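Title: Prediction job returns without error message
Component: structure pipeline
Severity: low
Priority: P3
Assignee: unassigned

Description:
Job completed but the reporter wants confirmation the result is attached to the right record. Sequence as submitted:
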Amino acid sequence: MKKNQTVFLKLCLADALIRLLETREYADININEICELADVGRTTFYRHLDKNNGKEELLLFKIAYEWDRYQEKHDEEITKDPNLGMSSYIYENRKLFSLLYKKGLITLLMRAFEVLVPGGEVYDKNLSYLMSFFTYGYFGIIYQWIKYDFDETPEQVKKHIDETIFSAMGK
């Protein structure tokens, strides 16, 4: 299957899973239901997704895909201020992030941030610790924002992030 077809397939499956999540608990949703709603065969599902973590993989794919699309549209803004860019992306997709929070998918949200926060593979142990500190600290602020039902603007959240980083750096 060509790359664009695979992307389309995964998006259809992810969207079906999200629709099911709106009315059902994550653990209660099975692959058959996702495939039926997406009009995709189970064999095709298993050909492209991990047998044990397929649902999680779909949600992470959806978050990363939407981030890539957001980056393409807002490249200048993100280059100028990555924290504001990420906060704005999350705010624009707050329905999805709120749904994941309400369904108790905190670990999935954390894994999404590992993917979204730039840094790449870190081979230096000390740098790895520092990247984890910033990634999970950033996540903590965003998590509280989601928990408080996005009661502040992306600009206000960016200010909290900047203040936290500066205080952590001792400035």
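Comment from assignee: result matches the submitted record. The radius of gyration is 17 Å.
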